[in-house]
Amino acid sequence: MISINEVIETNAMISRMNLDVRTITMGISLLDCVGGTLKETCDNIYNKITMKAKDLVYTGEEISKKYGIPIVNKRISVTPIALVGGSVCKTSDDFVEIAKTLDRAADTVGVNFIGGYSALVSKSMTKADELLIRSIPKALAKTGKVCSSVNTGSTKTGINMDAVKLIGEIVLETAELTKDQDSIGCAKFVVFCNAPDDNPFMAGAFHGVTEADCIINVGVSGPGVVKAALEAVRGENFEVLCETIKKTAFKITRVGQLVAKEASARLGVPFGIIDLSLAPTPAVGDSVGEILEEIGLEFSGAPGTTAALAMLNDQVKKGGVMASSYVGGLSGAFIPVSEDQRMIDAVEAGALTIEKLEAMTCVCSVGLDMLAIPGDTKATTISGIIADEMALGMVNQKTTAVRIIPVIGKTVGDKAEFGGLLGYAPIMPVNQYSCDAFINRGGRIPAPIHSFKN
Fold it and tell me: 276 Cβ partners below 8 Å, 6+ apart?
């Protein structure tokens, strides 16, 4: 039974602490949409998405009105398109036609983003995988709502370095094709190691092949709520600190569980998972960086940052997992630079570097996220940064990712403006020493010895 005090407390979280449900994401399988021709396949994709998701936005708005809970985004994720288009796409431009179809369907149903323009190549690439990857720059330049991802490694298979090398080139090409918008195309593309099948957060969402035909996943957020809770125990020891984070994460996740169950019932679609990640926004008071400062750091990046983030991530998971029947996705603390004002401030103060961020990703939810770097950075350097992050995920048996943006025409000291939830980002310096010979070796880095658990 929910008490009146809990209702009052939740209302305060929403009105004063930026608590929201960041997204309701409908996952849709497109495996049954493969036709005999490209046109037939595109028609099937459009028809299925618009049929399944026709009431998604309306339902989200009605739930938001009923409970007074802001639901910021309504999104769709689909089966990795490299699998769907493999038999009918003979060129990269064929895949771009599917991207345009996804974009048109997203516009029709009114969602913010549609994810799943993706390929899974952790061990090797099929011809269709390679064609899709090579189509990504044009696909993201010619669409507004399509998000793309590629899984290039896993603990079980190792790292596909051929794919990593290619993606460094693809990131630069995407940046060039969207340079008139500060290379924003790269903000819609993520490279993964150990990608989860059920991630509702963009840009890395796709509908896994092990999922049901259609499901509802919900991603909750609430850095401001955690920050406010920690203000009330300022100066207390770590035991008190951890208990406070756990209890707060439980309350945040219960809100997501409520929304997920309601959306599932109204849409007649099975409930998938709650992703209980702390996902910041550019709004003041909605920052993971502020939480780290409240824990006791002058800036994110100061000595002790990795330990503080590890503790925060662990306590969020411990509290949240008790509040939902099914927790999945990424679940933890996101540390995107451009979407978190205090992270931006830390970069501008010189407290936070790419190397320190890389260390932090060993213990946080995802990885190097929304990093803006000089537009003249070499493709091999980008591939090297990606390879480092993939190695962290592979060895530590966790999901890691890279969303990196070489902003064409800008350099260290400049800023890239993305707008909306993506915010803005200072251009960060990149290590100038070469990794060309390493990246150009080709092949696959083997899985670590501890992957053999059968």
Answer: 220, 249, 252, 253, 256, 316, 317, 320, 321, 323, 324, 327, 331, 332
